[in-house]
Amino acid sequence: MIQAPLAQRLAEGIAASGPIPLAQYMAEANAHYYATRDPIGARGDFTTAPEISQMFGELIGLWFADLWDRGDRPPVRYVEFGPGRGTLAADALRAMRKVGLEPPVHFIETSPVLRAAQAERVPDAEWHVDLVGVPDDAALLIVANEFFDALPIRQFVKTGEGWFERLVDCTSGVFHGVVGDRRFDQIVPQTLRDAPEGSILETCPAAIAVMRQLAARLHHQGGVALIADYGYRGPATGETLQAVRGHAYADPFADPGEQDLTAHVDFGTLAQEAVAEDLEIYGPVEQGPFLEALGIGPRAASLAAAAPDRAEDIDIAKRRLTGPDAMGHLFKMLAVAAPGAPEPAGF
Asked: Which of 31, 190, 211, 310 is the most exposed place for a label (fewest CB within 10 A)?
């Protein structure tokens, strides 16, 4: 039985106007979810790479510092999309400072709960709801770690009559997917239109909008963006929508707004969009080889030598970040840079 205010509101809207697009359901559910809790860590629903080990953020910081140094050390601003608790930024900025880079910090974050957590770790940050508020007077060092996966997706289902959008309905208080009655064959890439009946195509208009916004700023100001997330090289068919609650998978249609809804990122389409916007692209490459190329092995050895009692934990964290059976294979790295920027390491 529906009790939560968001679920009740969604159910009432569906009862009044009919099923809603999956993207609307996902957007409203995630907006409520992130605004009302800190979902990260043992007490939350999931753990991100920066929370596993300081090595992740440190290497990202040094990656940016290397590009800054080889680019003649221009004025820069550090910008992070969806910075979680601020852990990645704190570790990256600490590493940057050791080589003389101390950029102003800008967080793209809407959650008041997470903004409070970020302020504890990076008290000098400025917060924005999108890139529009970030000053345009310096090159940008942009990172988005597990940001794109939470953006709302659309799903299209192949039937015997063509491709139709998947909608969300509510029957007797239970949310569930249904197939709409409007054909969308024109949205499906030509190479996928003859996919078998029952195939599902996912698209993410919000991700393309963010990429276009990034491109405009990078062209105007210079700089680079690093996107880190779990995903695949698309476009391709397959359903990846998932919910996580208490570090376990859950039903995406249960308890909207009370669990994290994500979908795998289509890195192929993101890269194509970056090329269309005249950006330089590098990758995507798997996270494991990327971190190995940046020196996670020597960094882990250094940390273990400094704290022998933590050596086993450090090795476990390294394997979680780089192992092909952990985050090393599924997670990808994609760099997009302004024309003429130095070629980044790790690719």
From this structure: 190
Q: Give the list of residues 6+ apart from residue 313 with CB closer than 8 angstroms, or none.
A: none
Q: Kindly report the length of the chain.
A: 347
**pLDDT tens digits along 167-208:** 999 999 899 999 999 999 999 999 999 999 999 999 999 999
User: Given strand 260-262, what is the order of strands in its sheet?
Assistant: 248-250, 242-245, 260-262
The secondary structure of 176-197 as a DSSP string is: EEEEEEEE-GGGS-GGGTTPPT
Report pLDDT digits (tens) over 114-136. Answer: 999 999 999 999 999 999 999 99
Residues 6+ apart with CB under 8 A from 253: 168, 174, 175, 176, 177
pTM (2 d.p.): 0.95
Prior bond of 235 cis (ω within 30°): yes
| Coil/strand/helix, residue 123 | coil
